[in-house]
Amino acid sequence: MDVFDVVIVGSGPAGMGAAFELALKSPNLSILIIDQERFSTGGMRNDCKMNFTFPIGFPEEYWTKEQAEHYLEKAALYLKPNIMEKSNIAVYQRRARRLGCRLLEIRQAHLGTDGGLILIKRLLAELNALGITLALGETMLAVNNDNHYITTDKRDIFYKTLLLAPGRKGFHFLQMMLQTLGVPFVDNIVDIGIRVETRLEHYPIVQDYYDPKFYFPEKVRTFCTNSGNAHVVKEKYTTARGDVWYSVNGHAYSADSKNANGLVNFAILKTVKFTAPLASGQAYAENLGLQAALMGGGRPLMQRVGDFRLGTRSKETSFNADLYDFQPSLKDCCPGDISLAVPAKILRVIWKAMKNLDTIVPGVLHPSTIMYYPEIKLYANKPVYLDNHFRVKDRVFLAGDGAGTSRGITGAWASGIRSAEGILKTLASTSKD
Ligand SMILES: Cc1cc2nc3c(=O)[nH]c(=O)nc-3n(C[C@H](O)[C@H](O)[C@H](O)COP(=O)(O)OP(=O)(O)OC[C@H]3O[C@@H](n4cnc5c(N)ncnc54)[C@H](O)[C@@H]3O)c2cc1C
């Protein structure tokens, strides 16, 4: 029989942050991390820019500035960020302020997708040296908290405490576990938007500030900027009925990579919150994703800004003709008309934000700029937490993006540490029983 003091599901930054904290504070604990992927570890494999300033990555309903700073300091001990220099920020901030927008100044490090892999390998070696067991290619399927065991596709594993940190892709899985455990939750918030791709010279701010965080009116913001050797990618999602849709995303390789493609990509997202009637953000997002897939023949949509302005769809030729002078980095995408797929209210505020951005960083609305749709972030499961350590049931804790406690690598790591502190308290009290 497999029995562990702590079973952690998910080897992303939330799971890792927890594992390191547990092993550091209580070296004799038996700790198992499982992950359904054959290679570790979650979202640190993607671009790996790390933000070290509140509130980036920290949902404000769960974090104060002081708390976030306290845990960020701990996370930095393991992530060892090399904070990047920024320049000319005051100029952009002044222009933004004049338009009623904000440019946040964030402490950032960027490893790139290749650099992230090196970090992961180092962290895995350290976890191994601490005696933590890692089971890759093993998927958790069910939980029985009355008898304290989980069922995976390979075996039953008994736990004293359980941490679920399945990330954004595990959003649906987590909802199923919450239902089994009888934990009430809502998922009424979702971020919906587009990914913009343009030439470096049309968005030169990235040479001063790698991932500039602009906040626009009406809950619109820029998010996850990548440059250098930067690529737009697709993420596959499957609905409960088995229908497939794609969200776009972006990443880049490390700065010293020899293959810079001269492109920049970033998301512009609008936060949508349902109140009455209370609706599921996931269900809404799925419907939008499916609609885009329907129009794109199963693929996401892309449109040149020049075509969008003229009110015409983009065609294959829009990606070859001389004015439109660069090829999309995401090849498997359908030229079309995003305004037929994006809800009017969302498109209106995003386009307004882009016009503001074009005034702050002139050039971004060049006719060749590509708008990809949809980019959707499903990280707003909001379970009812029983304490400050993201406990949802006796012995069961959550952490990371899937649980709504973070929105990025550093926030996920920090939330893992917070859960680990609760796990240690629970273990201390159960050992007295
Ligand atoms: C393309 C892309 C680029 C990104 N770029 C950045 C960036 O530059 N900076 C940044 O801060 N954030 C970035 N993010 C977001 C970042 O990846 C997440 O915020 C972060 O990884 C969340 O950490 P997590 O531990 O909560 O989940 P994850 O890192 O997603 O880890 C969850 C793990 O749980 C596993 N899992 C899920 N369900 C199960 C199950 N049932 N059984 C077993 N294992 C399971 C998954 O395989 C996964 O490995 C990016 C995301 C993507 C997709």
Summarize the structure.
This protein has 433 residues and is of the alpha+beta class. It has helices at 13-25, 65-79, 89-98, 112-129, 171-181, 281-295, 305-310, 344-360, 409-432; strands at residues 2-9, 31-35, 49-51, 102-104, 108-110, 133-136, 140-144, 149-152, 156-164, 185-186, 189-199, 213-216, 220-228, 230-238, 244-252, 263-273, 301-304, 334-335, 370-377, 382-383, 391-393, 396-398. α2 packs across α9 and α3 crosses α8.
Largest sheet: 8 strands, mixed
CATH class of the largest domain: Alpha Beta
Helix content: 25-40%
Class from helix and strand fractions: alpha+beta
Beta-strand portion reads 25-35%
Which distinct ligands sit in these coordinates? flavin-adenine dinucleotide
The domain count comes to 2
- Corresponding CATH superfamily of the largest domain: FAD/NAD(P)-binding domain
Compute the average pLDDT. Answer: 93
Question: What is the global morphology?
Answer: globular
How many H/I helical runs? 9
